[in-house]
Write a structure and sequence with these properties.
3-stranded antiparallel sheet
Length: about 110
């Protein structure tokens, strides 16, 4: 597979992997391979059994930049297979916004 640097960077961004913008193509590829392999092992997406509700508007970078608004159900029907890691990230302050974005529905 012959990928361009911009394609590699895009995939790294989608995975939420930080990297030095000066890193060369080989370094970026190595980083992508490392994170892709670990994500496949750790984060098998399954439909969550619990229901979640959005508590603050946000753009979901892992759902094609879909914008969720307060009181929406999470995840939306078109993206119902979300991994547990993502649920934990959004329901805590350990995300890019440093805010709780979803909570378990009563």
């Amino acid at each position: 597979m012959c990928m361009k640097v911009e394609e590699i960077k895009k995939q790294l961004d989608e995975l939420g992997v930080e990297y030095d913008s000066k890193l060369n193509k080989d370094g970026l590829l190595e980083l992508l391979e490392t994170h892709s392999a670990s994500d496949k092992e750790e984060d098998i997406a399954v439909a969550p059994t619990k229901k979640y509700i959005v508590v603050e508007d946000f753009k979901d970078l892992e759902d094609n930049d879909f914008i969720y608004t307060k009181d929406d159900l999470y995840p939306r029907e078109e993206n119902k297979n979300v991994d547990e890691k993502r649920i934990k990230e959004l329901s805590s302050i350990k995300n890019k916004r440093n805010r709780v974005l979803i909570r378990e529905q009563d």
